[in-house]
Amino acid sequence: MTDTQRPIMEMSGVSVRFPVGGRTLTAVDDVSLALYRGQTLALVGESGSGKSTAATALMRATTPQAGRITFDGRDITRLPERRLRPLRRHFQMILQDPYASLDPRMTVARIVAEPLHAHGFGTREQIGARVAEVLAQVGLPASAAGRYPAQFSGGQRQRISIARALAARPSVLVADEPVSALDVSIQAQIVNLLGEVQRTDDLAFLLIAHDLSLVHHISDRVVVLYLGRVLEEGPTTSVVASPQHPYTAALLSATPTTEERPRERIVLSGDPPSPIDRPPGCVFHTRCPVARAVCATDVPPLTVAGDRSVACFFPGEVDSGLGLTEVR
Amino acid sequence: MDEAVLDVDGLSVVHGGDTRIVQDVSFRLGRGEILGLVGESGSGKSLTALSLMGLLPPGLSRTGTVRLRGEDLTGHSEKQMERVRGAQIGMVFQDPMTGLNPVRRIGSVLVETVRRHQDVSRAAAREKAVEALAAVGVPSPGDRVRAYPHQLSGGLRQRVMIALALINEPSVILADEPTTALDTTIQAQITQLMRDQIQARGASMVLITHDLGVAAELCDRVAVMYSGGVVEEGPTRELLRNPRHPYTAALLAAAPNFDRSRTLAAIPGAPPSPFARPDGCPFHPRCDRAQDACSTKEPVLTVSGSARLACWNPHD
Asked: What percentage of residues in chain A have a pLDDT greater than 90?
């Protein structure tokens, strides 16, 4: 993947704010992301990081207060829904809860065919053939078509969601915590399936997750969000092996895995501040183990250094303690 | 581990007279020890915990024996179990709102818990409540006793739950997915807090979790459960380095970690329902090492050295 290739979908300088009882909740603050065909980008953060809001802004389910969203080079930031609708088949989304996101009164065939009808895909026969094809692609038996969501397990339901998202042959797939409601053994099935469809359909895939160990297995690049701001961005293997932002290092260190580690975990103190009451300066300074006076007053800009962009005045000072060497 | 604090022998949870949802679970918890019960949904790990507390939902009953510091709890009435819960066994759940009454100040819940089990004045109990909150790292505990649960963050609520579980100095803590609902950085705080508190008090803990990573961080020993039974148990490090049961090995291979050279190995299929368990080993339809015997004869949990294993064809 060369950097000269044009992103299929992009958001630049996007901010999303909500009024809350006379005050302003800043969910997303000046975030830029670029999605390329054939690539997986992971958007990682904890509750309140703005990762899901950023995705809804990208999908134009929310209109941002600032910044620009483009699809295939075309500015869609303020495109009215009527003109957005024909474009929607190109960017599809999968949600976390496979129980809430499928209409229980519809058969699997109708659920999966929905985006095809919405976008005038073809004749009844063509739609039927496409549904069968995409059910097979996600590993569901043909007999699934006539059944209802309640007749399937959580993992199978997530396969149905994936089939629906893929039916209209999108170029962009966004998945918001697609496996966090599933058991470990089923999680791996769905993660592997997502990786597989991303490759076979040459998708630009945006994976939203809280778990760095998970995204590490399937993403090419990763963006780390905290209180609405991008703190670090870069190739996933390199970010995991040598995090430059203290928050990335702490998050990596705190991720529970079965691996033996050379050093004790970094335990950050306190809770993240509220997005209604964001601290001045660096949003992370109130919990940062290496914060200095300047961090409380000035906002560190996202700066490119080597293969990384980092928003920190003192990058590289905190070691994750995972003892990883870069995998290439 | 000669003197077990908690000794569970042949524990089963039975539904409708004949379906065993939990099957013949036995374990011993030593003083100061943290034992992990690890399994996926439907493995029976949470029902095992509830049955220990005498808190099974209607329609389910328990067989087998449970001894707490030598005292047999098997024949205990509900009234007797009430004296055990909260005094000798403390509980921490996944969702702290389960254990905290949303319309009561946290101080009043703590005070009531103290006075239910100890003969102390309200003022003395209040003092204990403030001390307990301070011990679990709740900032300005003197003010926080007046707070309602919804005024606290998820991490603080879980600290309050832990204070509540510890306040009567029980010998055993039963924690069911205590960090699952929390963010990663808060999860690390709560994990560290539980480890420190258990150590400082010389208490023991049974940790119920679906996450081998959490178990790796906290537990001295791990028992892996599948389809209602323990399939393998051993010291945490040995079990993770050298899993012998194919299910333990498969669960490890499916769990994400920071070794990118390894792809996540999915386990085919899904666990069986307790109402339709296959003959033989319950894992054999999904097992890559299954042999003829595995589909006909159920393997028995057998002691080997410091570990236990139920498998006809284990890894070396």
From this structure: 85
- Give the H/E segment covering residue A186: helix A184-200
Rounded Cα–Cα distance for residues B133 and B162 (Å): 9
| pLDDT at residue number A1 | 45
Question: What's the gap in Å between the CA of B13 and the closest CA on chain A?
Answer: 22
Instruction: State the pLDDT at residue B186.
Output: 94
- Please give the tally of structural domains in chain B: 2
The number of folded domains in chain A is 1
Place of tokens 């303690």: A321
**Cβ within 8 Å, pair B153-A237:** no
The phi, psi pair for B68, rounded to 5°, reads -115, 115
pTM (predicted TM-score): 0.93
Mean pLDDT of A237-247: 96
CA dist list (Å): A299 to A45, A267, A293, A318: 19, 24, 12, 19
Q: Examine the domain organization and report whether B8 and B143 are in the same domain.
A: no
Full residue range of the structural domain in which residue A109 is found: 100-169
Q: How close B213 comes to chain A (CA, Å)? A: 4
Identity of the residue numbered B108 = S
Range of the structural domain that residue B15 is part of: 4-77+174-309
The SS3 of residue B315 is coil
Choose among A179, A210, A191, A180: nearest CA to A272.
Answer: A210
Q: Is residue B82 part of a domain?
A: no
Q: Chain B: which residues have CB within 8 Å of chain A?
A: 40-41, 153, 155-156, 183-189, 191-192, 210-214, 216-217, 237, 240, 250-252, 254-261, 263-268, 270
Render pLDDT for A49-97 as a digit per residue (tens, 0 to 9). Answer: 999 999 999 999 999 999 999 999 999 999 999 999 999 999 999 988 7
Rounded to the nearest angstrom, the minimum Cα separation between A195 and chain B is 11
Q: What is the pLDDT of residues A112-149, one digit of tens each?
A: 999 999 888 889 999 999 999 999 999 999 999 999 99
pLDDT in tens, B235-262: 999 999 999 999 999 999 999 988 877 7
Q: How far is A189 from chain B (nearest CA, A)?
A: 5
pLDDT above 90: residue B2: no
Instruction: Give B-chain residues touching A189 at CB under 8 angstroms.
Output: 266-268
Where would I find the beta strands (DSSP E) of B177-297?
204-209, 221-226, 229-235
Q: Which residues of B touch A325 (CB under 8 A)?
A: none
CA-based nearest residue to B227, from B61, B23, B49, B64: B23
CB contact under 8 A, B259 and A259: yes
**Which residue of A152, A185, A276 is the best one to mutate when testing the B interface, meaning the one whose CB has the most B CBs within 10 A?**
A185
State whether B266 and A260 contact (CB < 8 Å): no
Same structural domain for residues B38 and B126? no
Q: Span B278-302, mean pLDDT?
A: 96
Does the pLDDT of residue A327 top 60, yes or no? no
Residue A146 lies inside a defined structural domain of this protein: yes
